[in-house]
Structure formats: C-alpha cells, structure tokens
UniProtKB/TrEMBL annotation:
The keyword Signal applies. Residues 66-157 form the Purple acid phosphatase N-terminal domain. It catalyses: a phosphate monoester + H2O = an alcohol + phosphate. Keywords: Glycoprotein, Hydrolase, Iron, Metal-binding, Signal, Zinc. PANTHER family: ACID PHOSPHATASE RELATED (PTHR22953), PURPLE ACID PHOSPHATASE 10 (PTHR22953:SF86). Its cofactor is Fe cation; Zn(2+). Its EC number is 3.1.3.2. GO terms for molecular function: acid phosphatase activity; metal ion binding. SUPFAM superfamilies: Metallo-dependent phosphatases, Purple acid phosphatase, N-terminal domain. This is Purple acid phosphatase. InterPro entries: Calcineurin-like_PHP (IPR004843), Metallo-depent_PP-like (IPR029052), MPP_PAP (IPR041792), PAPs-like (IPR039331), PAPs_C (IPR025733), PAPs_N (IPR015914), Purple_acid_Pase-like_N (IPR008963). Belongs to the metallophosphoesterase superfamily. Purple acid phosphatase family.
C-alpha cells in the first residue's frame, strides 16, 4: 500500500500536486510501518479456569471407563494412528478393536499401559496402542475399554501423500482449560472450513500453574479435549508448560507428565526423542521442533534437523510447515527474545530450504509476519535488521487458545515492518491447502461468528510458486 502511494506522488504533474504528494509521502512514512495492528477491542474479562465439576470435564460413566481418549498420527505417512486413553479403576486392557466403514472385518491391536507419580499424585493407567496398515482416506471406527466399559469413536485417515492433495489443518496453541479455551475449541469445531487435523503448537493443560503442578488438571484437560482429539489427530508440540520441572518438590525429570500421556511417532522420522520429529500428511511435510530441548550445534536435535531438511521432497510434499512453541518473530512485550537463540541456529536453514510457514505459540495473542529473514549478521558487520525475503517463511504466532494466564495485550510500538498483522484476541486458525501452489489461511477470533475470518492470506508455495504473496503489497 505504501509503495503504491509513493508512486502516485512522484507522477504528479504540477508543482503544487508534487508538493502535496511529498507531504503525503512524508506523513505516510511516519504512520505506515507495513503492518496492521487491529483496532478490534475485545471485551475485557478475566480468564479463569473452568471448575472441575464443569460438564466438559465429566468422567464417562461405567466401571473403568476409558477417559481422555486422544489420537495422533502413528507413522510417517498417515497409515497408522496412536490411540491413547486412561483408565482409573484398574489397568484393564490396552487392546483396540477397529474396523473400516465399508468392512465388517474387525481387527485388533495391543498396546502398553503405564503409570507415573508426580509428587503426591499418582496417575491412572495410561494406555497407548498403535493401529497400523490403515487404508488412506477411509473412515475407521475404534473401540477402547475392552473387558469392562467400552467406548466407541471414529476418525478418517488422510489421503495418500501427494503434491496436489488438498487438506485442511487447524491451528491451536496454548489452549489451557479456561472458559475462553472452551470457546476456542467450540469455534474450531464449528468452523465451517472443517479442519481435519490440528497442528498444536504447545502448552496443553497449564496444570503447572496449580500448587505442586496438580496433575489432576492434566486429567481434566484430557477429558476436555477428548471431544475433538478422539475423532481427529492432534499433532503435538512441547511447550514450556509441558516441562513440569520442579526441584522444590523433587520433580527433576523434565516433561514427565507430558511424555507419559502424549506419545508421538518420533522414531518413524529417525528422531531419538519425542520432542522433535516429522510427519507427512497429504501434501504437507510437518517438522516439529522443541524450544525446550538442546538445539545448539552437535546436539541431537541439531543433527536431526540438519539431516532432516535435505530429505524433504517438495515434488512429493510441496508444503513445508514447521511447528515450535517459542516464536522467533514476536512484536509483543512478552517472552521477548526467548526464541532468538534458536532463530540464530536454524533460520538460515529455513531460508535455504524454503520453509513455507512457521507456526508458534507461547505469546498469548495473534501475529502474522511478512516473509522476512535476518541471517546476514556475523557479529562484526552490524547487519541485524530483518529484511523482506521471498525464500523465507511466514511466521505466525497462534498462542491465543485462551488459557488462564490471559491475553498478551502489550505490544512494542511502532509495529515493526516485519509484522503484517497483530491482534490481542483469543482464537484459532485454519491452513487450507488447495494444491501444490496455493493454500488459504484464515484466523478466527472467538468473539465473532463461527464463519468470520479476522485475518486471511493466500499462501503461494515457496517451491512451486515462489511469487510475492504479502498481503500488504497485494492490497
Ligand atoms: Fe508457553
């Protein structure tokens, strides 16, 4: 927009119109920073957790009934699913019975059960069972709780991996279990664009905000999220609220509750830890990174990512998406520079391998960047300003799920040129891949109707269609 107005000024014919144009340009230079800070004013009310007796936390009836049922992709390409649940009365069976919509043949798979202790809390019996050899693009029913109280759910497998396969991802981060969290989840469920898989960018239950990290809040979160995650996979990223490191009560093993409860298919991508891994799904290649595991040179995560990025075949999966928790580009006055050290380590790779988009959370608000990079700095040259870069990803902060810590409302001013849109509201987003060149992205705030799009962008694929897709130059 700014550039177009500048051109109009320069082509003015008379002296007076040129003078007006110069004044116009000068005034625009003061107010135009390339991006937009939304003027939407959210109704301010305190963000509080729903009480444990809320209906969304209800324990399913029946002896040893499975609860907190959740699924995630179980292999690298989408032909397997990890089914997880908790039983509380006794271990019961880790068997899953499953069948496809068009088949009467019932198959079964067996998994494993485990428990953990955290300070004075003892977990229920946590089951994880991987079901394999699923057909693509097929609806499956599955039953858990064999032996006592059974519960039945369903999911749809993704289409076979390929470059023009449309697929719709939802984006949720920093969800928690407040009344606002419930609104976010409802808005996602009722969004007419119908997300098929959630890319979750970390910070699930916020149990660690309770005295002694009351792990009952991990259980209530599991029951709350079940209504979505039992029916479609959520792809997990570890956030800082998953660390649960608390030496004052003797809890010194990071990620203990999270890694017992949420399994991911990390071995399928040759990762050695569940905190960084990759999957393919339809036309997308999704890389999950851990902001809270070592990522410096020589570390396992660094070596894995160094080997992983060249493996991505963009003729097969054109859309390269990275998930992490702590954002690299963030113009809010919260968590300032927390993502900076990882950016220094990996940003040049993201530019080299033309990552399409990076989704992060952590900051409890919404922000979308221009395509920028900041990789020229070498300590002595002083070149340390982000510049527009068509090989760089768009960075989206979507930590606006609605947890009890409330909104991040304080922004740095003026809005930096790399920031395309920012708004302090709770919500979720949809990344809707159309084909190998185009994806439609929309962000939805909780205060609006389910179909309303508060921020949108057509993504042009960086490998197949690397044309400038900035919303500020298109308008
Ligand atoms: Fe966080």
């Amino acid at each position: 927009m700014c550039r177009q107005k500048v051109k109009m000024g320069l082509f003015g014919s008379s002296l007076s119109s040129s003078l007006i144009a110069v004044i116009l340009v000068l005034s625009l230079a003061v107010v135009c920073h390339g991006g937009k800070t939304s003027t939407f004013v959210r109704k301010v009310e305190k963000t509080i957790d729903m009480p444990l007796n809320s209906d969304v936390f209800k324990v399913p009836p029946g002896y040893n009934a499975p609860q907190q049922v959740h699924i995630t992709q179980g292999d690298h390409v989408g032909e397997a699913m990890i089914i997880s649940w908790v039983t509380v009365d006794e271990p019961g069976s880790s068997k899953v019975v499953f069948w496809s919509e068009n088949s009467k043949e019932k198959r079964h798979a067996k998994g494993k059960v485990s428990t953990y202790k955290y300070y004075n809390y003892k977990s229920g019996f946590i089951h994880h069972t991987t079901i394999r050899n699923l057909k693509f693009n097929t609806k499956y029913y599955y039953v858990v709780g064999i032996g006592h109280t059974t519960r039945q759910f369903w999911f749809v497998t993704p289409p076979e991996v390929g470059p023009d396969v449309p697929y719709t991802f939802g984006l949720i981060g920093d969800l928690g279990q407040s009344y606002d969290s419930n609104r976010t989840l409802t808005h996602y469920e009722l969004n007419p664009q119908k997300g098929k898989t959630v890319l979750f960018v970390g910070d699930l239950s916020y149990a660690d905000n309770y005295p002694n990290h009351d792990n009952n809040r991990w259980d209530s979160w599991g029951r709350f999220a079940e209504r979505s995650v039992a029916y479609q996979p959520w792809i997990w990223t570890a956030g800082n609220h998953e660390i649960d490191y608390e030496p004052s009560i003797g809890e010194t093993k990071p990620f203990k509750p999270y890694s017992h409860r949420y399994h991911v298919p990390f071995k399928a991508s040759n990762s050695t830890e569940p905190f960084w891994y990759s999957i393919k799904r339809a036309s997308a290649y999704i890389i999950v990174l851990s902001s809270y595991s070592a990522y410096g040179k020589y570390t396992p995560q660094y070596k894995w990512l160094e080997e992983e990025l060249p493996k991505v075949n963009r003729t097969e999966t054109p859309w390269l998406i990275v998930l992490m928790h702590s954002p690299w580009y963030n113009s809010y006055n919260y968590h300032f520079l927390e993502g900076e050290t990882m950016r220094v380590m990996y940003e040049a790779w993201f530019v080299k391998y033309k990552v399409d988009v990076v989704f992060a959370g952590h900051v409890h608000a919404y922000e979308r960047s221009e395509r920028v990079s900041n990789i020229a700095y070498n300590v002595v040259n002083g070149i340390c300003t982000p510049i527009k870069d068509q090989s760089a990803p768009v960075y989206i902060t979507i930590g606006d799920g609605g947890n009890l810590e409330g909104l991040a409302t304080n922004m740095t001013e003026p809005q930096p040129p790399y920031s395309a849109y920012r708004e302090a509201s709770f919500g979720h987003a949809i990344f809707d891949i159309k084909n190998r060149t185009h994806a439609y992205y929309s962000w939805h705030r909780n205060q609006d109707g389910y179909a309303v799009e508060a921020d949108t962008m057509w993504f042009f694929n960086r490998y197949n269609h690397p044309v400038d897709d900035s919303t500020s130059t298109q308008s």
